Amino acid sequence: xxxxxxxxxxxxLVALLSKDDAAHARAVRLFAACRPPLRTCEAVLxxxxxLLRTVHAQGPAEVVALGRKAVFEVACPLSPDWSAVEGxxxxxxxxxxxxxxxxxxxxxxxxxxPRILTFDADFDVYRWGRHRRFQRLDA
Length: 139
Hints:
The chain is α/β, with parallel strands linked by helices. Helices cover 45% and strands 15% of the residues. Helix 1 (10-17) crosses helix 2 (24-32), helix 3 packs antiparallel against helix 4 and helix 3 runs antiparallel to helix 6.
């Protein structure tokens, strides 16, 4: 695949950094198939730091270290897109959508990027650019 610019969700990031995670080997394989930097948002990083903190104390620092090493970049700041993200949260209110999911949908729109590294099957339902489907790299 050797894809660059792929969107990055929380699940694969947590699995990559947690060797005890059931999906760790899959995450290692998927990250190896992507050329950095992956694109993500601050909400994904906040979720990953929170979840990894429950696994080990250095988890949040390891998330930040991957950013410092340019494995991913924060390509979708929330502040210019308040209305768009609010609209997505309302549109998918019947699904378990998170702020991170809505920000990644908006990131797909801003960067014209359908490929996403996620374990979240809701991205099979979510659409960006009105009706465009995501291409889940783990599927």
